[in-house]
Design a protein that fits this description.
7 strands, Trna Endonuclease, Chain: A, domain 1, globular, two-stranded antiparallel ribbon, alpha+beta, five-stranded mixed sheet
Length: 127
């Protein structure tokens, strides 16, 4: 698979994830805890035929030593990290958290999705 085909495949998966987020939001509305949306979107993504790894753990190294682990909300199809929030608005620390998850996981693409408002908000982050 060449680079353009891989990017096209990733774009398709991104669209499916965002669509699933809108479906979950339209069905549940806003106001639930993050864990509720996480469980719902895992179901929705599974129904779309996507592989979802919930709460994957990644080691964090400092000077070659493992100093702990980081757990993201989920990784979809082994290539897209998805971090869910229920906040008034995205803050710099949410973006930094996703970028750190990407570094720890060695993945290149993350979606940060916010379910706090009536309309889903999302950001695409690339490392």
């Amino acid at each position: 698979m060449n680079t353009n085909e891989h990017e096209s495949d990733l774009d398709q998966v991104v669209r499916m994830i965002i669509g699933a987020a809108y479906t979950v939001s339209n069905t549940l509305g806003c106001g639930f805890l993050e864990k509720i949306y996480e469980r719902a979107i895992i179901i929705e993504l599974g129904e779309l035929g996507l592989r979802v790894e919930p709460q994957p753990k990644y080691p964090v190294f400092y000077k070659g030593r493992n100093i702990g682990t980081y757990a993201a909300d989920m990784v979809v199809d082994g290539s897209i990290l998805v971090e869910l929030k229920c906040v008034d608005s995205f803050a710099d620390e949410h973006i930094a958290q996703c970028l750190n998850y990407l570094r720890a996981s060695k993945l290149k693409l993350a979606l940060l999705i916010n379910f706090q408002k009536p309309k889903v908000e999302w950001k695409r982050l690339i490392l």
